[in-house]
């Protein structure tokens, strides 16, 4: 999945060390709200056990972060996270575009109904997703994270399916992978074929399968 600033790709074995390094540093602290020091094997085991990660790369293919998602309260509900490991890029829009690409995957490919994100009120970037109109503020959870010797509230942000499609329409972001013209051509080709064939076509098809 490719945007202007970033591309999302699957995680390979070569990525586990870098993911572990990011998760052990400030990028991981901003995302999870707790000190975590996973090893390469921990990251590999987590992914093999079902944790869903996609690497975030820049236009040159340099790895700059990752996005994650996990199942929510029902089959079409998900909770997402984003981690930009390169601190120089934290305010440059790479994380926001990575989230938009992930939202496209969840809503437009996997049929999600609800996607949510929890962010600590020590992390300015996710909060800006509310102020910029990307996600809806649902509520504030008091003393949810403990960072730098004190408690911080967290906000829960979400999008429902109609919210998402209003957002991408407002932003003018194309969603489809297959061009609309190709879809129409495939449908029209079949329509013309069905007009031309005999009415006995489907009867013959069933009889042939029963032989």
Whole-number count of domains: 2
CATH-scheme architecture of the largest domain: 3-Layer(aba) Sandwich
Structure summary, number of beta strands? 7
State the name of the first-level CATH class of the largest domain.
Alpha Beta
Q: Give the fraction of residues assigned to helices.
A: 40-55%
**Beta-sheet strand percentage?**
25-35%
Spatial arrangement of strands, main beta sheet: 1-2-3-4-5-7-6
Mean pLDDT: 87
CA gyration radius, whole angstroms: 22 Å
CATH H-level superfamily of the largest domain = Gcn5-related N-acetyltransferase (GNAT)
Shape: elongated
Biggest sheet: strands, sense, closure? Answer: 7 strands, mixed
Low-pLDDT segments, ≥5 res: none
Short synopsis of the structure:
This protein is of the alpha+beta class and 211 residues long. It has helices spanning 16-23, 26-32, 40-48, 94-109, 124-131, 161-171, 180-196, 201-210; strands spanning 7-10, 52-57, 63-71, 77-84, 114-120, 136-147, 150-160. It is elongated.
Which descriptors would you attach to this protein?
8 helices, seven-stranded mixed beta sheet, 211 residues, Aminopeptidase, 7 strands, alpha+beta
Provide a descriptive summary of the structure in words:
The protein is 41% helix and 27% strand. It has 211 residues and is of the alpha+beta class. It folds into two domains: 7-177, Gcn5-related N-acetyltransferase (GNAT) (Aminopeptidase), CATH 3.40.630.30; 179-211. Strands 1-2-3-4-5-7-6 form a seven-stranded mixed β-sheet, sandwiched between helices. A hairpin with a 2-residue loop joins strand 6 (136-147) and strand 7. Helix 1 (16-23) packs across helix 3 (40-48). The mean pLDDT is 87.
